[in-house]
Amino acid sequence: MTKPVFLVTGGSRGIGEAIALDAAAAGYFVLLTYASAAAAAEAVVQRIRDAGGEAEAVQADTGEWADIERLFAAVDARGRLAVLCYNGGVTGGSTTMAEVSNEALFETVNVNLTGAMICAREAIRRISTRRGGEGGSIIFLSSRASLYGSPNDHVWYAASKGGIDSLVYGLAREVGTEGIRVNAVSPGPIRTEIHSPGRLERIESSLPMGRAGEPSEVASAVMFLASNAASYVAGSILAVGGGR
After folding, report:
1. What is d(CA 86, CA 11) in angstroms, rounded to the nearest whole number?
2. What is the distance between the alpha carbons of residues 224 and 201, in angstroms, rounded to a whole number?
3. Rounded to two decimals, what is the model's pTM?
4. Does the annotation count 157 as an active-site position?
5. Strand pairing partners for 184?
6. Which domain does 233 fall in, by range?
7. Contact by Cβ (8 Å): 196, 173
8. Which terminus, N or C, of the chain has the lesser number of Cβ atoms within 10 Å?
9. How many domains in the chain?
10. Could you tell me if 68 and 47 are in contact, meaning their C-beta atoms sit under 8 angstroms apart?
11. Digits of tens for pLDDT over the chain (244 positions)?
12. CA-CA distance, 212 to 200, in Å (whole number)?
């Protein structure tokens, strides 16, 4: 029997890697993307295969339409898409709005928000029961930054994640009768490479739980939203921020 496909963007490391491993353990065929870290992505695929699962890595910059088109061709070649987890994202660096470059702004919005919308569109076309699909889930990775705005750090990143929150609210209502549940997980500070060196150590003592989160804790929330245990959960943004 062909396994349903779980697509996770940005699956070569950090939160995406943890999601890919958990999805494979749950019985999905995992299709994970990477922008440039080919060796890291293949290492995740190998870990999944060594554990008896099935996975494939696809190079795709989700800020580029041509790459997304090629990605979904790979999805179609593997079978029925059941879950899209849009995880990949960039911060555009750390500075003030007055100093940020045009390139950083465009890349952040293209990858974090425009790419998310295009991938969601392509997923709906495959998952929707109204279009011949069997239903499933779309799960976005938002950020607690969408609430506090990340001033003097990366306001544009927070704004792009605020766009994800709005996308969740509207899209869940639009496709709810088509067998698709749309939700998001909103992580706080998580121990990944997205942070500049030393940043987590500087802020940990100020966090409500006194520590940063782990990628596996975010992955567990994603897998809950993808599971039948969340069968009546739609249009929700699940905070995984340790109280932040």
Report:
1. 10
2. 29
3. 0.95
4. yes
5. 140, 237
6. 5-240
7. no
8. N
9. 1
10. no
11. 699 999 999 999 999 999 999 999 999 999 999 999 999 999 999 999 999 999 999 999 999 999 999 999 999 999 999 999 999 789 999 999 999 999 999 999 999 999 999 999 999 999 999 999 999 999 999 999 999 999 999 999 999 999 999 999 999 999 999 999 999 999 988 887 665 566 666 667 677 877 878 999 999 999 999 999 999 999 999 999 887 7
12. 7
Residue identified by tokens 């039948």 is 228
Question: Which CATH number characterizes residue 126's domain?
Answer: 3.40.50.720
Q: Which of 28, 148, 157, 169 is catalytic?
A: 157
